[in-house]
Amino acid sequence: MKAANRTAPAQMIPPAALRRTVLLVVPDPAEQAELAAILLHDGYEIVEAMTGADALELCLAREPDMVLADRALPDMSGLSLCAAFRRMERQSHGYFVLMSSDGGDAEMQAGLREGVDDILTKPVAPMALRARLAAGERLLRIEEELNASNAQLRSAMERLSETQAAMERDLREARKLQQGLVRERAGRFGMAEVSLLLRPAGHIGGDLVGFFPITDQRIGLFALDVAGHGVTAALLTAQLSVHLSGSADQNVALRGAQSGADAVTPGGLAHFFNTMMLEEMNTDGYFTMIYGDLNHRTGKLRMVQAGHPHPVLQRADGSIQRLGKGGMPVGVFERPVFDEFTVTMHPGDRLLITSDGITEASTPNGRLLGDDGVEAIMRTNAFLGGVAFLESMAWSVSEYCRGERLDDMSAVLLEMRADGE
Questions:
Q1: Terminus-to-terminus CA distance in the chain, angstroms?
Q2: Which end of the chain has a smaller Cβ tally under 10 Å, C or N?
């Protein structure tokens, strides 16, 4: 291999240029020496070759930062050398300057096609050479800075991915814990059968549904929807569930019943929560609620509606009516007005309570399911009951949304069965 290395004396090398290596490919020894002297004076490390084959071997061995090659080489053209240089696997771009006696447009176009970065017209003037190499320096610095930024970005993305994976694991566990708040998905109390649906849009949500026995004749059933999504809503939901759990020490309705006072009415429970939200909880959150107190022997159902979607009552003959006037959400106003009402249920009747994740489900073009859609689902699924009805309803809502459901879905289904049914 006819190749050589030249390095300037240490006192001649500017510190900023120490890292740059230039491959000089010139078949004329005198011209090569003249160009090498200029490059050495400017502080570059020089690797020299006189043929294209030798130059390619040096490219593999040294991976020079820049290549300064003659247009006419003994074994190939400078353009062919550039094309082969561009096909090599390199860690950096590599700045390629072609020296040619013809600096016209045709030569420039041919060079650009093969990956040449710049063209120097021969004979090469020192100032022109330095200008081209300065441009190469700028390009290489930009590339190095970009590579460094990309490396930092990749590192940050890897750390973010690890953090997201940990959050996903935590959210999956949180989902299990939240689902555990609904201890039973169905229950039978005399003629009354209660079934529940709780389906967060994400890992965790702000909906809560449930039921519990109050006395041997009465049961409480509830549906809550905390405003917002994610961890904040889920934490508030968990805190509220404590006051509606099966524990007599914590459940407000049970405490009232066991004290011998029938004073904890559905409306009273809503006011209790409203006071708690405004005076005890350090939060700007609020929630909507339906709470019902059912005497399953007589079928008398006392309810309160606090901003929650209207319960839908379907009688045994198939007729449907919406109950309640709306009421105000819990935790917003100091003197709220909640809607209290009483309805009597008979064998064959059923009551459906849904969250707004069902009534406000929409098609991709924004058309809401609404109360009419819920009623249509009830009629269509009149032959189904219990959990099977709720699952069919959830499937219908997902189909209506084309799978683009953005809110939690929850529901309570209360059915009055005939004795022995």
A1: 99
A2: C
Q: What is the mean pLDDT of residues 196-205?
A: 72
Alpha-carbon dihedral sign for residues 174, 179, 182, 184: negative
Q: What percent of the chain shows pLDDT beyond 70? A: 82
Residue 111 corresponds to which tokens in the numbers above? Answer: 């060079």
Pairing of strands 192-199, 409-416: antiparallel
Q: Look up residue 177 and give its DSSP letter.
A: H
Q: Are 262 and 314 in contact (CB under 8 A)?
A: no
In the numeric block, the tokens 């909880």 are attached to 281
Partners of residue 210 on adjacent β-strands: 222
Whether the pTM exceeds 0.70: the reply is no
What lies within 8 Å, CB to CB, of 257 at 6+ separation is 214, 215, 218, 264
Count CA within 13 A, CB hemisphere, residue 110. 14
Q: Which residue type sits at 89?
A: E
Alpha-carbon distance of 126 to 209, in angstroms, equals 83
Burial of 270 (0-12, 13-18, 19+ CB in 10 A): buried
Q: How many CA atoms lie within 13 A of 226 on its CB side?
A: 26
Whether 167 shows a pLDDT value over 90: the answer reads no
